[in-house]
Amino acid sequence: MTEPSSTLADAETLARRDRDLLIHPYLSGSVKERVIMREGDGCRLRDVEGREYLDATGGLWLAQVGHGRQEIADVAAAQMSQLEYFMSFWEFSNERAIELAERLVSIAPDGIRRVFFTSGGSEGNEAAIKMARYYHHRRGESNRTWILARHQAYHGIGYGSGSATGFPIYHEGFGPMLPDVRHVTPPWPYRSELFDGQDPTEFCLRELEQTIEEIGAHRIAAMIGEPIMGVAGMIVPPADYWPRVRELLSAHGILLIFDEVVTAYGRTGNWFASQYFGVQPDVIVTAKGITSGYMPLGAVLVSEAVAEALARDHGFPMGYTYNGHPTACAVALANLDIIERESLLEQARSTGQYLLDRLRSLESLPIVGEVRGVGMMLALELVSDRDSREPLLVTPPVEDVARHDAGLIVRNCGHNVVLSPPLSMTRSEADELVDGLTSVLERLRPDGTWLD
Ligand SMILES: Cc1ncc(COP(=O)(O)O)c(C=O)c1O
């Protein structure tokens, strides 16, 4: 990274202009501080005041290859000089979109054959929900309109994707949401109170079966789920959950949409979490890690059966201006090249396991109820009491204290502290992360106050 060039006065002016002009998602009005990032290199970030941070979230859970890769910038510049953009509607296409679709199908789980590009995750889930309804419509089952989703799911903020999102807070003030969406209980093994002491998979499967019976299978288009729930707090389901859900849905002709917006492109140490769980979804929604965030892009991957129904006779009747954006696709190809060349799937598995093992030593602290994760998706669930497992919510939150005191970017999801670092994180950076987080959490008391 270069030497900082801003003075503190510049930084304050920028913060004031930001406060005057920008509408930030989810920012509490009482927060006046702004953290204005200027540059990044690998897992390191530096803000306009010259403060350095270790990025343990990859921004919003992407940055697979880390920040500041000149190689990707060069590819984008070359593609922009040749053909920055053209549409993919009707018969139009471009070389990079074709190459990327081919590449995605080659690494995707068995059964995936075609690709529909978007600009991000919410757009992808919007498209997937429409695809599911349209698939049944074209097969003569227009009554299949219902979408099953899960409580505590996050699928984005459109009206379809947002309705599938299972946190009431994301719906408040925006209603009415999409009709015909039903949320069921997700398997969260640590929260055994959700399952009346029963086995989580058994409980969830029974509830799912009852829900299908109640609505009527002939009225249900699809079930959508994150293979590992991110925003809920990196909830890893029992190994038998997804295979059994898949089996049940197939028996009723209900499509399975995997929202792999976070999990795809190496986060679990596999290209897709579908492969980790040994499940073949009908539709896989991806975004984020496809470009490591260097350009906005998403890709919805579909099985041949779904693609055939959608595109038979005429093209799928919806599209985005940026479908198959050549520069974004070129960047995605360069990003996938790096993941492959630098063996980042293997690195995600080994560094993820190393982080998990080291973080597990924090379970000796009274406030850490559980440490869990797969690959580079990790969480610490904070509790005020390990026996009652009462969630521990603190002010200021751990993410603020970690940033101010230890230069660490981590994130609070409710009472969970979640980590999703670049897959390229080194062992010494992983040590720095665990040591920094340990020093922060050791100062947190079970009553939610901080030791000075
Ligand atoms: C699982 C999941 N799905 C969908 C989305 C929405 O993606 P986007 O913010 O690109 O619209 C997110 C964003 O974090 C996500 O975590």
Task: Give your account of this protein's structure.
By secondary structure, the chain is α/β, with parallel strands linked by helices. The chain folds into two domains: 8-65 and 343-441, Alpha-Beta Complex (Aspartate Aminotransferase, domain 1); 71-341, Type I PLP-dependent aspartate aminotransferase-like (Major domain) (Aspartate Aminotransferase, domain 2). It has 14 helices and 16 strands. The protein has helices at 8-21, 58-61, 70-83, 95-107, 121-138, 159-164, 200-215, 241-251, 273-277, 304-311, 326-341, 344-360, 398-406, 427-441; strands spanning 37-41, 44-47, 52-55, 112-118, 146-150, 181-184, 220-225, 255-259, 283-286, 298-303, 368-374, 377-385, 390-391, 408-409, 411-413, 416-419. The strands form three sheets. Strands 4-10-9-8-7-5-6 form a seven-stranded mixed β-sheet, sandwiched between helices. Strands 11, 12, 13, 15 and 16 form a five-stranded antiparallel β-sheet that branches. A hairpin with a 4-residue loop joins strand 12 and strand 13. The relative contact order is 0.14. The model has no long low-confidence stretch (mean pLDDT 96). Bound molecules: pyridoxal-5'-phosphate (PLP).
